Amino acid sequence: MQGSANLNVMIKAARSAGRSLVKDFREVENLQVSTKAAGDFVSRADIAAEKIIKDALMEARPTYGWLGEETGETPGQDPTRRWIVDPLDGTTNFLHGLPHWAISIALEHRGKIVAGVVFDAAKEEMFVAENGKGAWMNDMRLRSSDRRHLQDSIYATGLPFSGQSDLPETLQDLARLLPTCAGVRRWGAASLDLAYVAGGRYDGYWERRLNIWDIAAGLIIAREAGAIIDGLKRGSKPEETGDLICATEVQFEAFAHAIRSS
Predict the structure, then answer these.
(1) Which pLDDT does position 160 carry in this prediction?
(2) Bridge partners of residue 81, in order along the sequence
């Protein structure tokens, strides 16, 4: 894929942060960890990766705004553009030595995500997309799957932990969906869940209570690969609510019906 100058900056920043994270991942037992909240940890590696990304992006585009999971929001001189970054999506996996985590970088222009990068550094898989230019993984064009039947399909979600209030709703979702499909996976990194729908590895994905930095890059990658995305409440915006349903075009209505049915 021949990317724009902005996308190339994003890819370079993701690779730089990825090298740092892979080095720390190999020594995960030595990481210094402090508790942010129950079940939600931040590590030295996480903070260092965000600094690498922020330094690279802000050096290249010093007037853009910034929103990062660890450092929060900094308005830019250009109010129309903003970087949205999760330096380590799947922190709990990372800290447990599970090689399923990613760096997520998105560019927002006038309230719309126009470019996204999700880098799985442990597997050397770089998912990228720009508005109107399709989605790619390394040098391979991505397209969502063409499976038509739920019973042949695998879906992904996130399961609430540490007493989060949406556990009963999610259990009801699973009770409706599991009898109709080939399986549900919970791998703990929303950006990769969306990228996997883009690549046809999953046929759909839904989750509640997500943050914008969890999903911003994944949303444009999935959309550019042909997936349909909506809020759990029909017509709502996942970027605003943090609740979403994502599925292939041929399956979206049936999948959404299964999740939304009370």
Answers:
(1) 81
(2) 109
Q: What is the pLDDT of residue 168?
A: 87
> Kind of pairing, strands 72-74 and 65-68?
antiparallel
d(CA 57, CA 52): 9
According to CATH, what is the number of the domain 5-142? 3.30.540.10
Q: Residue 166 burial by CB count (10 A; 0-12/13-18/19+): exposed, middle or buried?
A: middle
- The fold of the 150-260 domain, in CATH, is D-Maltodextrin-Binding Protein; domain 2 (3.40.190)
Termini Cα distance of the chain: 43
Residue spans in the chain of domains classed CATH 3.30.540.10:
5-142
Q: What pLDDT is attached to residue 30?
A: 65
Buried b (16+ CB within 10 A) or exposed e, 233-252: eeeeebbeebbbbbbbebbb
In a 3-state reduction of DSSP, which class is residue 49?
Answer: helix
Distance between CA 134 and CA 31 in Å, rounded? 38
Query: Could you tell me where in the chain the CATH 3.40.190.80 domains are found?
Result: 150-260
Q: What is the pLDDT of residue 38?
A: 35
pLDDT 10s digits, 228-254? 999 999 999 999 999 999 999 999 999
List the beta bridge partners of residue 65: 82
Q: Which residues of the chain are under the pLDDT cut of 50?
A: 37-40
pTM of the model: 0.93
> For residues 236, 242, 213 and 192, what is the CA-based torsion angle, rounded to 10 degrees?
-100
Per-residue tokens: 35: 């508790």
Closest of 159, 151, 130, 243 to residue 203, by C-alpha: 151
Residue 162 exposure: Cα atoms within 13 Å on the Cβ side: 6
